[in-house]
Design goal:
By secondary structure, the protein is α/β, with parallel strands linked by helices. The longest helix has 15 residues.
Length: 338
């Protein structure tokens, strides 16, 4: 079967950094379903895994952790899906990725594709929806039923993939006052269209900008961009007993001591945790995606496709990696069909 993979970890401008390959079609066992991949989207985790290093893979490694497609076959322990079911999911970072014609994934982290979306628009959602949902509702403990309505959240990186769905969850489900960051007019427009009440520039003095629009402090901070750079500002603006959640790994120690006097909480969110460790509650991601699918079909949430880059091949996947590395992508980058 066709796939996009790598054997050497190279700069994205090198045409050998990602190449078109042929690999064997896998067969499902246990809780696995075999999915015929129809569309994928590309996330920062893809280029971070591909980042240059000395490792050489003996067999090609396939990346890609966002996909939609149709169930081709199921393992003997599968109970949630059957062949022919349209699905969407993010997969596991510890297994081969979805940049291939057929892909194995555990049914417990898969959702049924929203009926109102085609495969392209559905592929934009799983990884970012899981990440934003878990950060806001599971880590920070915000009510998805609106019990915290009127509280304030600062979303750093509002126009990115996770920010694009995070704004919607915070505004449309939690009923929060949403302050999103964006540094360009086009990304600010995007964030406002998704429901942000206010926009500030994360390259500027965020505490000063917040004061200018009437907010000395915020109840929550969702950090979807550069933990090292933005943590001090987040600590400065978080309310006493508030909470900060970040999804971005740090390169230097996080100064959590800045939160002590405020008794503020700090959370990490990593949407691969359940699949990586095989936690007993893995099926919660199936339930989460099922709910996201329902909310999409009900018109409460919308897809976050920013740009369609064409067919799934090495050249187009490299282009997606490059756009993400440059930090100028708005919404999600998607590819459809081989």
């Amino acid at each position: 079967m066709k796939a996009v993979g790598l054997t050497h970890y190279l700069p994205i401008d090198n045409p050998e950094s990602l190449v078109d390959i042929e690999i064997d079609k896998p067969q499902p066992v246990g809780h696995d379903i075999l999915v015929k991949v129809e569309a994928i989207s590309v996330n920062p985790v893809d280029y971070k895994v591909r980042a240059p290093k000395d490792t050489v893979e003996k067999t090609p490694r396939v990346l890609g952790w966002d996909a939609s497609g149709v169930v081709e076959a199921v393992g003997p322990d599968v109970t949630l899906f059957k062949p022919g079911d349209p699905v969407f999911y993010a997969g596991s970072i510890t297994r081969p990725g979805a940049n291939s014609e057929f892909h194995l994934v555990d049914e417990r982290i898969v959702g049924r594709k929203p009926a109102s979306l085609d495969f392209t628009h559905a592929a934009a959602l799983p990884l970012t929806a899981i990440t934003a949902w878990e950060a806001l509702f599971d880590r920070l403990g915000v009510s998805p039923q609106g019990a915290d309505a009127g509280k304030t959240v600062l979303i750093i990186g509002g126009a990115g993939g996770v920010g694009s769905i995070g704004i919607q969850l915070a505004k449309r489900l939690a009923k929060l006052m949403v302050i999103a960051t964006a540094s360009r007019p086009e990304s600010a427009r995007w964030a406002k269209e998704l429901g942000a009440d206010h926009i500030v520039d994360h390259f500027g003095d965020m505490p000063a900008q917040l004061k200018q629009i009437g907010f000395e402090e915020v109840d929550y901070v969702l950090m979807f961009n550069d933990t090292d750079r933005h943590f001090p500002a987040a600590a400065a603006v978080i309310k006493p007993q508030g909470g900060i959640a970040t999804i971005v790994e740090n390169a230097k120690p996080v100064p959590v001591e800045l939160l002590k006097a405020k008794s503020a909480a700090f959370h990490w969110e990593f949407m691969f945790t359940r699949s990586m460790f095989g936690t007993p509650d893995m099926i919660e991601q199936h339930k989460l995606l099922t709910e996201v699918s329902r909310l999409i079909d009900a018109g409460i949430l919308r897809t976050t496709v920013g740009e369609h880059l064409g067919k799934i091949n090495a050249e187009n996947v490299r282009r997606a990696h490059k756009l993400l590395e440059e930090g100028r992508a708005i919404g999600k980058l998607v590819l459809t069909g081989f």
